[in-house]
Amino acid sequence: MASHAVTHTSGAHDDAGHSNPNYQHQFEDLHQQYDATTFGMWVFLAQEILFFGAIFCAYAVYRFKYPEAYHEGARELSLILGGTNTIVLILSSLTMALGVRAAQLGRNKSVFNWLALTLLLGFVFMGIKAVEYTEKWEKHHVPGLNWHMTGAEADHMQIYFSIYFAMTGMHALHMIIGAGLLLFFMYKAWNKTYSKEFYGPIEIMGLYWHFVDIVWIFLFPMLYLIS
Amino acid sequence: MSAHTEPHAGGHNEPHVASFGSYLAIFGTLMVLTAITVAASRVDLGPLNVWIALLIAMVKASIVVLFFMHVKYSSPLIKLTAACGFIWLVFMFGLTFADYIGRTMVEPPKSWITAPAAAKEAPAAEQK
Amino acid sequence: MSATLAPPLHTTPEPEPQFPAKHFLNTGRGVASWLLTKDHKRIALMYLISVTLMALLGGFFASLVRLELLTPQGDLMSAEQYNRAFTMHGIIMVFFLLIPVTPAILGNFLLPIMIGAKDLALPRINLLSWYLYVIGAILTLSSLVLGGADTGWTFYTPYSSMYSTGAVIPAALGAFVAGFSSILTGLNFIVTVHKMRCPGMTWMRMPLFVWANYATSLVQILGTPVVAMTIILVALEKLLGFSFFNAAAGGDPILFQHLFWFYSHPAVYIMILPGMGIISELVSAFSRKKIFGYSFIAMSSVAIAVIGFLIWGHHMYVSGQSVYEGLLFSVLTFLVAIPSAIKTFNWAATLYRGSISWDAPMVYAIGFFGLFLIGGLTGLFCANLAVDLHIHDTYFIVAHFHYIMVGGAIMAYMGGIHFWWPKMTGRMYPEALGRVSGVLVFLGFNLTFLPQFLLGYMGMPRRYHAYPEEFQIFNMMSTAGATVLGLGYLLPLVYFAWSLKYGKIAGNNPWGAKGLEWETTSPPPLENFHTMPVQTEEAYAYADEGETHHG
């Protein structure tokens, strides 16, 4: 992996990028490498859509069957915390997009800063989530582990909360992975890896992060905004 | 080196670099839509609420996909790939819900019965 | 079609084939050069070893099942032990043999070469997929050590998530991890086919084996993640007591089945499509004739992949799902037979007036024909809602899917491994023994599974370790057949190993077949070609040898 700056004059495709230390030899040139790796990330995201889609399907089936339980369950969630997290994540998508833009322009220091900001917002999100989960634990709303609920819809609310924890837990796991990846790319940017000729990995990081944001864009209304 | 038979999908010889301001505008739009979806959830519109929430979420997701994820400026292949994920969700949801909705249909839809009078008599006749 | 051995494919005498001095097997030595390789060919061989080992284990469990079923009484094992035997057989064979066998071994080795590329698009992801396979296998083995799962490979809830005392979680997690191995393989293939074809290699000039693996990869990407999430839900329910399928809390066990079969039905197309791709290659090479209806076969692969996602409910006709749902799925299920039939007609048309030679790969290919035909046609019985009410969960179903999975997919794989063995290793296997194993497998297979159609029709249920006396004769035939089948599978292990040291040197193109893989050395060099190819002709461009018919 490159740890030294490789400066190129703009538009230097004379050797098709072969002298760039990040060039991988199964490809013809850096163009093909960019094309193939970004396409590869999109194929991965298509797979992720189906991965989350399965639990969204379970969510939808049970909402269809037990609308009251969902209504009751959503009332136990904090709109303030959920709403704040939505703002935080969308803001982190903005900072991530600006980080990709910086990479496209070959500005490694800027990339580092935007990714750091994105990471920070990610930590804020996780912090708020931790507060929410703690509150759920204290109120005995964790199915199987310390569940206690009264009322007509108590049984069905177990399903609602199981789905709540599975969905938000899986989302959080993806964010943690994303945070790890952000750290890795911050390190690479610190070492001046990226340039106008080679910025694909940041684009790919951005695609992943935006996807995680999109999952939350659906999670928030589906779990919190049941009127 | 030999030439490729087709141009590089994505045409990223000159990547489309959006302006700083345009990204801010997208962010602003997403914030507005978030506010709208929260407000809409406060108004009781019965079964319509979930569809409105879903619609707004899909608009927000589309904005993220098109602009933050650059799909607007990407190749048809990438657009198709993104679309395929959602199309397959339609398959999964659609055919699964056909079951749950079908279970609420105790009798077949009236239009399937050619002789309505016969339908009224048949269940009585079939009591064993 | 003459039944005698056709003359060798080469009509002009050729110089003695040479073993290349430098090739991918001797470029880089030592364990690290294998375990850290990025070469798709080495990864393919590592898969070959691990998949073969898992197949032997799965076969061991099959032997336990067949031994028990030799007698009507449950005398070899208790019912609970028998449950574990058929469950582990199913899990191992489905997730660790059938899903990866052709894509991860033959696909990995051949796909880049067939399109003129140096490697797959993402070599490190390829290596990761092998490690995930191994980790999944270790998890499944740990389930074995802990007594094995007893839920059936289908993990139906609520038994799997609430009541089973078997080692369900490690087995399910093993399948989960193996699923990600499969997803990564599919991802790699899709990207490679779209982005790495050599100059002149248009979509409609690619070998049909590549089309088949491409269609398979679509299924791997879009189907596997759903079962991955479903397994997680079952694990959460079992480990933490969450409620997803727990009827006491209002959960619906049938929802599990919907989510499970959404993947597991398309999964059977992951298993068969690559095999169909092999058959296209074999039928063309051993008729020395351009494949008939190339574009129909290519498109039908994609059609099967897509339609295959719309028909999962035919596994659930008697589950308690709405009868209207069953109706809908029955109609859709009949549709999927159409593209399969299109392929079969095109293969037959290729054979017609071809110059057939009966080398071992062709023995397997023709065996595939008969067995896949029976498997496919019996699928129509199963698709019929009214018939399935009687045959669901009987041996009819067991026979149907074994005809496709083993008679179809594995036969095709065996044909393929014989066909491409010389390319991968530079050595020929002993041809006579190759034909013998093909015949043994064909005969043994039919003896094993044909009686099972009758058993199912007569009402013998599956997954029972004891049965009424009147079913014994067919069960004895089936067990006898399984022994012959086992011999037919063990024989190649012996002669393939033998061939590595003593096999005849193959040379670049021992079969005289068309395809970029035959234009490079056997074994190929590290970057597949000494000069990167340019594709200038259509696929299967065999010279007309007095033929008046064209594909």
Features:
heterotrimer, A: 227 residues, mainly alpha, Four Helix Bundle (Hemerythrin (Met), subunit A), elongated, disordered N terminus, C: 551 residues, Cytochrome C Oxidase, Chain A, 16 helices, globular, disordered C terminus
User: Low-confidence parts of chain A lasting 5 or more residues at pLDDT below 50?
Assistant: 1-12
| CATH structural class of chain C | Mainly Alpha
CATH superfamily of chain C: Cytochrome c oxidase-like, subunit I domain
The count of helical stretches of chain C stands at 16
Total number of beta strands of chain A: 0
Could you tell me the number of beta strands of chain C? 0
Largest interface: A-B, 55 and 53 residues
Terminal residue distance of chain C: 18 Å
Give me the secondary-structure category of chain A. Answer: mainly alpha
Average pLDDT metric of chain C: 95
The CATH topology assignment of chain A is: Four Helix Bundle (Hemerythrin (Met), subunit A)
The helix content of chain A is over 70%
What is the distance, rounded to the nearest whole angstrom, between the alpha carbons of the first and last residues of chain A? 52 Å
- Specify Rg of chain A, calculated over alpha carbons: 21 Å
Describe this structure in words.
The complex is a heterotrimer of chains A (227), B (128) and C (551). Chain A has helices at 30-65, 67-75, 79-104, 108-138, 154-190, 200-224. By secondary structure, chain A is mostly helical. Chain A has a single domain (41-224), classed as Four Helix Bundle (Hemerythrin (Met), subunit A) (Up-down Bundle). Mean pLDDT of chain A is 92; it is low at 1-12. The longest helix of chain B has 29 residues, at 76-104. The radius of gyration of chain B is 25 Å and the shape is flat. The model of chain B is unreliable at 1-12 and 124-128 (pLDDT under 50). Chain C is built from 16 helices and no strands. The longest helix of chain C is centred in the middle third of the chain and has 33 residues, at 208-240. In chain C, 59% of the residues are buried. With 551 residues, chain C is mainly α. Chains in contact: A-B, A-C, B-C. Chain B binds chain C through residues 2-5, 9, 77, 84-85, 88, 91-92, 95-96, 98-103, 105, 108, and chain C through 194-195, 197-202, 222, 226, 254-255, 258-259, 262, 309-310, 312-313, 321-325, 328-329, 532, 534.
